[in-house]
Design a protein that fits this description.
Number of helices: 13
Structural class: alpha/beta
Strand order of the largest sheet: 9-7-5-2-10-1-11-15-19-20
Strand content: 15-25%
Number of strands: 20
Helix content: 25-40%
Distance between the termini: 12 Å
Radius of gyration: 22 Å
Largest sheet: 10 strands, mixed
Shape: globular
């Protein structure tokens, strides 16, 4: 003990990799429990930048056991591309464990994802086209392929046949594409079986034994709260549970094993893809946040949409996840602004909402109600204690803490590994 869950508290890209890296020297296991290679973490170590998509960020921390748990969907080709890239840079990846119950993204999932998104046209969701949604759909429809299946060719063939039977009708008759053969899919997947075998295990047993032995286990979410399939801005969401509850089902540990839940949140807000975004900026201030913050997707390279901090969403994320701590990132990006607006509530057709409207139509029409806080001009990248921050930056942090409903326990003041201010201990028991 303890078990610590780390989640994004906005629409993703909040800097979860940096938060994981901050905890890396104090945890024994880092577990990815949802999503696939449709999200990216950037970690900067000694001026070296590492972009991770499928692998847990903990793979960069010496001595940590990185785990891809059962709730993840795995593109095996991407997995080995990432592993080989890290090996080439001298990173030890030999400790990686992969759940045998994790589902596989097959080549036909990527094809279905791309053609479906194009078919939707203006109603598109804004997916990354990586096959994540179709793989989760197969999982729910009980025609998915799991890691264990790679080691029994007869079962694997039968499952591919069952899955392609319907998909080929869709591809040929609806999307005017060629049918995908069972053999080509089988051959592509089987080429990875021997290399995968030593990594694949029952990770739920491994994690529960680790917690029993007093190990520190960090459960790292992909995507973020507002992209959660149940609690996000549906339908503009991902296909998995990206909130703290997903850590339980996505890893096979019980809820009583979780001691704290850390939410990572930017000092402003971004999102990618389609969907509502109340504080979105379309002016030079939005472009300033994008350029200064380097707001371009790690996975897709797409420019992120940018906006001011949304305290309504922060309160919602605190409630949905049961946050015990917040890591506030990219405070340095706001340096140089005379005034910094913060959204404290929404106006929906003349009605004030202090909490997140769950009605999709209401949220689409939500207009931000702002409070303006004083900005600062000083360079804060060298600050290593809260007292090192300018008074106005301190006041901004205190205001966000009060509005968001839980304590801010660490503050990011730059992209480098050591450019973070610890305020409270992030590993603790309730």
């Amino acid at each position: 003990m303890p078990g610590v869950v780390l989640v994004g508290a906005q629409w993703g890209d909040e800097g979860k990799g940096k938060a994981t890296d901050l905890l890396g020297s104090r945890v024994d296991y880092v577990v990815k429990f949802n999503g696939g290679n449709n999200a990216g973490h950037t970690v900067v170590i000694d001026d070296e930048k590492y972009a991770l998509h499928l692998l847990p960020s903990g793979i960069l921390s010496p001595g940590v056991v990185p785990v891809i748990a059962n709730g993840v969907v795995v593109d095996i080709e991407v997995l080995f591309e990432e592993l080989d890239a890290l090996i080439a840079r001298g990173v030890d990846v030999s400790r990686l464990l992969v759940s045998g119950s994790a589902h596989i993204i097959a080549p036909y999932h990527r094809t279905i994802d791309k053609v479906t998104e194009r078919f939707l046209g203006k109603r598109r969701i804004g997916t990354t086209g990586r096959g994540i949604g179709p793989a989760y759909a197969d999982k729910t429809n009980r025609v998915g392929i799991r890691m264990w299946d790679l080691f029994d060719e007869k079962i694997l063939r039968a499952k591919i046949e069952g899955s392609l039977d319907q998909k080929n009708h869709l591809l040929v008759k609806v999307y005017n594409r060629r049918a995908i053969t069972v053999d080509e899919t089988l051959d592509e997947l089987l080429q990875y079986a021997d290399r995968l075998r030593p990594m694949v295990t029952d990770t739920a047993v491994e994690l529960n034994k680790a917690l029993d032995a007093g190990k520190n286990v960090l459960f790292e979410a992909g995507q973020a709260t507002m992209l959660d399939i149940d609690h996000g801005t549906y339908p503009f969401v991902t296909s998995s549970s990206a909130t703290a509850g997903g850590a339980v089902t996505g890893s096979g540990v019980g809820p009583t094993r979780i001691d704290s839940v850390i939410g990572v949140i930017k000092a402003y807000t971004t999102r990618v893809g389609e969907g509502p975004f109340p504080t979105e900026l379309f002016d030079d201030k939005g472009e300033f946040l994008r350029k200064t913050g380097g707001e371009y997707g790690v996975t897709t390279g797409r420019a992120r949409r940018t906006g001011w901090y949304d305290a309504v969403i922060a309160r919602y994320a605190t409630r949905i996840n049961g946050l015990t701590d917040i890591v506030l990132t990219k405070l340095d990006v706001l340096t140089g602004m005379e005034k910094v607006p913060v959204c404290v509530a929404y106006d929906v057709d003349g009605v004030r909402y202090d909490e997140m409207p769950t009605d999709q139509t209401a949220f689409h029409h939500a207009k931000p109600i702002y409070e303006e806080l004083d900005g600062w001009w000083e360079d804060i990248s060298r600050a290593r204690s809260f007292e090192d921050l300018p008074k106005n930056a301190q006041a901004y942090v205190h205001a966000l803490e009060a509005m968001s409903g839980t304590r801010i326990s660490a503050i990011g003041v730059g992209p480098k590994r050591d450019e973070i201010i610890p305020v409270h201990d992030l590993i603790h028991t309730r």
